[in-house]
Amino acid sequence: MSTFRHQYNPIPNDSGQSEEIPLVSFKRKPIRRICQCPHFVLAEIGEKEKLQPSHPRFGPFYREDESEVSGKKAAWDKILEKSPDNKNKTLESYLSAMRRIEKEARDAYGGDKILYNYNLTQSEFRWMMIQDGCFFLLLALLILGVSPNQLGYPDKHIIFGKKDNEEDVKRWIESMFFVGNQIPLVVLNELMKQSFLQAIVQRVKNWEIPSDLSKKILYNLLVLPALEYANNQVTITSPLPVDLLDALHRLMIGPGDLISMDLVENETTEDDLEAGAEKGYSKGDISISATELSKKGIHFGIVEEGGCTEIDFKDYFLFPRLYLPTFTVDDDTELLCKSLKYYEISQKHCNGEGKMSQVMRSYLQFMNDLICTYEDVKILEKRGIIRANNPYTKEKLPMMLNKLAGKDKKTTTHKLHMLRIKLRDYNIAPWEKFKIVAILLFVFTVIQTFLAALSYIKPPK
């Protein structure tokens, strides 16, 4: 398939001059930003997991080998055709929207250097955001179940037509969650306020909240704000995620964010094993699988609000409980987890966010230790921790986790390291606790009987 470097040429206004209006600046730069996947990561992941020529490109980083049949022109032409206003007014509406948030959009890519590094003028950057953003949104709406006819396309359209299989949809999702292949959320939300996309959102009468994590992210970040905007309802979220991967990462790690996330290498060291041997443990006793923990009398609970940074162990007397966030298993789980691992590496590489660089990797290693067999899956599913949309994805979860975490260097956060030690050293069988309770009840009964007999023999005066 032939490729070309996609050009974002400014569309001339009524006077014949290119649209080159100074941007409007506001707000501070985000701590996180959209970063290109580092070359050493691309070399590690292999050819199959890289962006292929058939994958859509969004933003500046990967557009040099974009497919000739990208669909961006088709998307933009449809918007011009179907928008209620004339073409010039529609153009000005989109350009005005981009001027309002352009500084924030550029900051999402690292600031003004994105223009110099990729030889873009301010106007070209704006058109890239408009064309790529509109293309992204039309694909997202198709993924969420909007029909081609509702978008204004025939069922047999080569890109936006009805799909006989899920291969195209899977490829779109892979592209949307590939590190660096992102459009800032502030751009997407602003485009969703335009009349053409607002009309599509309103045309769908009963939106269903998806169960798949990738689709749920698209719905919550794109459709829900558009519906609230249409109904004059404003939900303030602070801070607004930079892009889809940032939002997904925040969802997975929870509000605890990066507190106590210092890293510890080789969580099960020889010193740990020697310390365990002194207590009578062997290497086989340090397993923290759900089955082994259940045998120790440890129960499982759900972290109601939060993600993997909220994992905790409470040593209640009779019912010790390990609290875990829900883990959604669907067709895209492996893809999203891989993307989050590479996302953390890219943030460390270009932003220096060292504390976040291993949080997801550490979490996946912990889940890999916890879920070794299908029996472990069933135990956690019964408690509502594992949520699977079909039996096949649920059955392959142990293999998937092993694939995600098995080859990684054993590096974990300090919190999960200490938690492993607690779980390993917890060795009070449930019957031992009930034996203690039985002894206490027996002693209490003897005392009560003695006092009753004493009051009978020597009644109070």
Automatic annotation (TrEMBL):
InterPro entries in the cross-refs: DUF247_pln
Transmembrane segments: 436-457
Pfam short name (any one): DUF247
Organism, scientific name: Cinchona calisaya
UniProtKB keywords: Membrane, Transmembrane, Transmembrane helix
Source domain of life: Eukaryota
PANTHER family: DUF4220 DOMAIN-CONTAINING PROTEIN, PROTEIN, PUTATIVE (DUF247)-RELATED-RELATED
Identification of the protein by name: Uncharacterized protein
